[in-house]
Design goal:
The protein is of the alpha+beta class. Helices cover 26% and strands 22% of the residues.
Length: 384
């Protein structure tokens, strides 16, 4: 039997293990976790598609889509969305629908937890991935036990009352500064793996021929969870080997400025660029028709598969892709508040805020909350 495929965020290494975490908790209230979607392109102001900027609270993107569909009477296939957003949060994101439904938009104003913020025309339908990224503003609340010095293991202060708010702010700033300099480990977060972290197990049954009766779009989502867990394991190995911010022979590296990819032939020649954060290694989302690593890098990718008694052939019906091992942390800030610390930062599409929060808190920030977001439909691949 292969090792467990249950997702456990706590088993993955940190980039900043020597910097004490600030502990705390998130999402005590929906407004503690705020996400603002930034579009990939400016809207033209004309066209047959209506773009609607919606704010939601306490709803998944799927639930919001259903309310838009049922309230306006628009067919689901005609609704476009760029990415999934958290349920236990205050989030803002774009939807698109045929322009003929504009006179009915007023009906959305009467729905609980939903506000229409902006409306504009555009020439094409919104699709998954059509966003630049997301701006996060998150309150990490100080818990009572931490404030009285009980939380303990991640506290660097010798004061039995625990670190002062100023000390926690300094700790958070040191961690975020390191992430900005070296990059955020680009782990897939808990939302990718479902309730109890078991989506990858169901994906494993599908690729190995097990009898799992699900709709085709859900099958795609479950297999993508398996691909995501294997990618996380690859990031883990690179961190443990000390090659997180370097490239090795045969890596498929990516240029951060242009997005161009190339196979590394001489790691010694390319590593100065990696250390300057100009390029980074990419890891495999195993499948067909994607750029394959070579040499030592490919051998490492094969070891990840072999650990679970898998081969590349198990993914020959699924399109593959490559994903950056790390991402830049941009526009970050830390603000002291009576309840704790507000942290703000921008992440490009496909990244998970939990990868930043776990470095800050030195634990799984979503413990007990896995799987709250469901795929929005046949095109959905996860939070973007």
């Amino acid at each position: 039997m292969p090792p467990s495929l249950r997702f456990d965020f706590d088993r993955y290494p940190y980039l900043t293990p020597n910097l004490a975490g600030i502990g705390g908790e998130i999402r005590r209230q929906n407004t503690d976790f705020q996400v603002t979607e930034l579009p990939a392109y400016p809207l033209s102001g004309e066209g047959e598609h209506l773009f609607v900027y919606l704010e939601k609270e306490g709803l998944t993107t799927r639930q919001l889509l259903e309310r838009v569909r049922d309230t306006l009477g628009v067919k689901e296939k005609d609704i476009g969305v760029a990415g999934l957003k958290d349920k236990r949060a205050l989030t803002r994101q774009w939807f698109s629908l045929p322009a003929k439904f504009e006179p009915r938009l007023g009906a959305l104003g009467g729905l609980e937890g939903i506000r229409v913020l902006e409306v504009a025309r555009h020439s094409n339908k919104l699709k998954i991935g059509h966003l630049r990224g997301n701006r996060f503003r998150i309150l990490i609340r100080t818990v009572e036990s931490q404030a009285s010095g009980v939380e303990g293991q991640n506290q660097s202060s010798a004061d039995p009352r625990g670190p002062t708010p100023e000390a926690r702010q300094a700790q958070a700033s040191a961690i975020l500064s390191t992430l900005a300099a070296q990059g955020i480990p680009n782990y897939f977060g808990p939302q990718r793996f479902g309730l109890g972290g078991r989506n990858a197990e169901r994906g494993y049954d599908l690729v190995t021929g097990g009898r799992v009766h699900v709709l085709p779009w859900l099958k795609k989502f479950l297999v993508s969870s398996l691909q995501s867990l294997l990618f996380n394991d690859w990031v883990q190995v690179r961190l443990e080997q000390g090659t997180f911010n370097q490239v090795i022979e045969g890596d498929v590296a990516k240029k951060h400025d242009s997005g161009g990819e190339f196979v590394v032939e001489d790691a010694g020649l390319e590593n100065p660029r990696a250390l300057r954060f100009e390029i980074s290694a990419t890891g495999p989302l195993y499948g067909k028709k994607y750029r394959e690593a070579q040499g030592a890098a490919r051998a490492l990718e094969d070891e990840i598969l072999a650990h679970y008694e898998l081969t590349r052939a198990h993914f020959d019906r699924r399109f593959g892709d490559r994903r950056l091992i790390r991402l830049p942390l941009a526009d970050w800030s830390v603000e002291e508040a009576p309840e704790g610390l507000w942290v703000s930062f921008f992440l490009p599409k496909g990244a998970y805020a939990t990868a930043v929060l776990r470095e800050l808190m030195k634990r799984n920030p979503e413990e007990g909350e896995e799987g709250e977001e469901e795929p929005a439909g046949p095109e959905a691949e996860g939070p973007a």
